[in-house]
Amino acid sequence: MANYATMRSGLRATALALSLGVMLATPARAEKVERFYLGVGSTTSEYWADVALGAKAVAESVGGKVQVLASDFQGQKLLQQFGAIFAAGCARCVVVVDPASNAFTKALVQRAADADASIITLWNRPESIHPWDTASPNWVANTSFDGVDSGYRNGMALCKALGGKGNIVALGGIPDNPPAKQRLAGLAKALAECPGMKLLDTQVGDWDTTKGQNLVRAWLARYGGDLNGIFSANDGMAIGAVAALREKGLNGKIPVTGSDGSSDAIKLVASGDMLSTIKVDAVGQGAVTAALAYAAASGDVDVAKLTEAQRDFWLQQTLVTKDNAAAILAAKPDLADYTYARIKANFWATSPGQIPPGANK
After folding, report:
1. pLDDT tens profile 133-165
2. Which residues form the signal peptide (predicted)?
């Protein structure tokens, strides 16, 4: 993918800066790591399957095996599952987990620290706590994708498709979830730069396809021909929106945006039923986080010597439009790139940089 190569080149300077700290660190004595745990939102999601693919590739490259636990986006369920694992101690365990919402992050990392596990969180970090000031060094790092950037680029794609003027509605994710808030903040930024585009309504769709479909049905009944565009904070709800439009013969006529880059959504972009989505590097996310947590658990990296930028960082994502949808669908990950030996050369090679203060408010 030409745009992927360009992104890697553009990230090179940032990645080099991020890597300097660990290059200067003196590795401690390597310890044997046998247990890898991956806490995901769902086992039926393509995104989470890709995260697991990356994590398993790294684990297998060092002789380990990943146990996957699904929260079904219920933080309390996740705490109970990991509570049973941590109860017997988890020294030199690798734990990579999405806490489901900010409300469960601190409890999860503290329990991991009490069990002496090395934990990396995905997506959900409350603004007030960080890996370096809470349960450190066991809370090794936190990673996410830039939701403001996602919302902004999709919002500006809508603005361009509407010729700078029109009425739109927005489907939001789980309210306490940082990416849900960030993506709507990004849309607000786009609206400020596109004053002719008016936001008629925003509703919570909880990342759910059926809820997205039902909300769009209601909007079509309420606004009729005055509705010109639909912004969705994720692909699942966007796919539901397209289904509702198809019922009225409006698919492809009212532009819809999504985020996450599922293959189903990208196919809709390629066919013209969706306008755009953001493809996140889920395989890379699973691989990088498993590798960094393994490095901490094994003593290959001294967590105390990592910089704040190396412990709370964005991962790469790409805007998908009709121009690049076919190329992105055709691209398949080469698992030979996702071994521990390769990733440890620079854990931050494709990171756009540190998550800035205020991003998780």
Report:
1. 999 999 999 999 999 999 999 999 999 999 999
2. 1-30
Cis omega (within 30 of 0) on the bond before 352? no
Nearest to 284 by CA among 251, 241, 317, 238: 317
pLDDT digits (tens, 9 = 90+) for 157-202: 999 999 999 999 999 998 878 899 999 999 999 999 999 999 999 9
Cα 182 off chain centre by = 12
Query: Phi, psi (5° rounding) for residue 271?
Result: -80, -10
Cα within 13 Å of Cα(58), Cβ side: 32
Q: Residue 342 class from Cβ within 10 Å (0-12 exposed, 13-18 middle, 19+ buried)?
A: middle
Give the neighbor-by-neighbor strand order of the sheet with 312-314: 65-70, 35-40, 94-97, 118-122, 139-144, 312-314
Task: Write the DSSP assignment of 193-204 as a string of letters.
Answer: H-TTEEEEEEEE
- As a whole number of angstroms, the distance between CA 245 and CA 216 comes to 8
Residue 262: name the closest of 349, 333, 196, 325 by CA: 325
- Nearest by Cα to 341 from 58, 65, 96, 141: 58
In Å, how far from its chain's centre is CA 18? 20
Interatomic CA distance for residues 306 and 222, integer angstroms: 53
Q: Which of 287, 311, 315 is nearest to 301 (CA)?
A: 311
